[in-house]
Write a structure and sequence with these properties.
42% helix; Pimeloyl-ACP methyl ester carboxylesterase; AB_hydrolase_sf; AB_hydrolase_fold; 272 residues; 8 strands; eight-stranded mixed β-sheet; alpha/beta; Rossmann fold; hydrolase activity
Length: 272
């Protein structure tokens, strides 16, 4: 697996498959490059180059004590793009990765980016404030942190079925759920907490309004991790001219449960 160094000396791991127009996949909080195993072969077989990043503290990347704020994580993404000299990119961000994509556009512009897909993205702003009455109170964020620090495996185990919305008939094996759990628990505990907090506090509303490239927003109606009324629908209202697609039986893990539909929706965006 190749690595590169960010501006603060952190070594980040990435994967690079195929040739052709590049698609950069940005993983969910607590997951790494392996989550995209149902997307990479689909797009490589169709002539695209797939680049995947393990954010700091995740997967095979370094585990520093700092740099988990949204700006630094967006700059890490920019460093990978510049390291590989990528242009004409399709950026695909899942969950907290969607926030990193949105902040990348704010901090580094759209010069290298041709289009964007936000998948189950934790956008636009989660925290309850006077000008964000749809948000959640700070206490909910910190209650999760307390659970991480008491019994992190239990927190993930309690949400595993809901992550894939198996109660709606999505065909997900116990083995796949176990695999997802293991991948989440391989993330550094420190990074788990710091990225969680940073994601909760990041306000992306202004940045989303400024996006000018073609954008796809995809969300599951049954998403228990990023409630659609708080996230997907509000994001679609903010991004000018975006295409919004809602999957009625979708939970948070659309990349697995609805991989065929998701892949084709991203492909339609690219072919636009």
């Amino acid at each position: 697996m190749p690595y590169f160094e960010t501006t603060d000396g952190t070594r980040l791991a990435y994967e690079d498959y195929g040739t052709g127009a590049p698609i950069v996949f940005v993983a969910s909080w607590a997951l790494g490059t392996d989550m995209w195993e149902y997307q990479v072969p689909f797009f490589v077989d169709r002539g695209y180059r797939c680049v995947l990043l393990d954010r700091r503290g995740h997967g095979r990347s370094d585990r520093p004590s700092t740099g988990y704020d949204i700006d630094t994580r967006a700059d890490d993404l920019a460093a990978l793009i510049e390291h590989l000299g990528l242009r004409g990119i399709t950026l695909v961000g899942h969950s907290a990765g969607g926030g990193e994509v949105a902040r990348y556009l704010v901090r580094h512009g759209e010069e290298r980016v041709s289009r964007v897909a936000f998948v189950s993205a934790v956008l636009p702003f989660l925290k309850l404030t006077d000008d964000n009455p749809q948000g959640a109170p700070e206490a909910l964020c910190e209650a999760a942190v307390a659970q991480f620090r008491t019994d992190r495996p239990s927190w993930f185990a309690q949400r595993a079925q809901g992550f894939y919305a198996t109660h709606l008939g999505n065909d997900v094996s116990p083995a796949l759920i176990d695999l997802t759990m293991r991948q989440c628990l391989e993330t550094a505990p420190w990074a788990t907490v710091e990225v969680w907090r940073a994601t909760f506090h990041a306000d992306h509303r202004e940045g989303l309004r400024a996006i000018t490239v073609p954008t796809l927003v995809v969300h599951g109606t049954a998403d228990q991790s990023a409630i659609v009324e708080m996230t997907g629908r509000r994001t679609a209202e903010l991004v000018p001219g975006c295409v919004y697609k809602e999957y009625p039986t979708g939970g948070h893990g659309l990349f697995a449960t609805h991989s065929e539909r998701l892949n084709n929706d991203i492909l339609d965006l690219i072919k636009g």
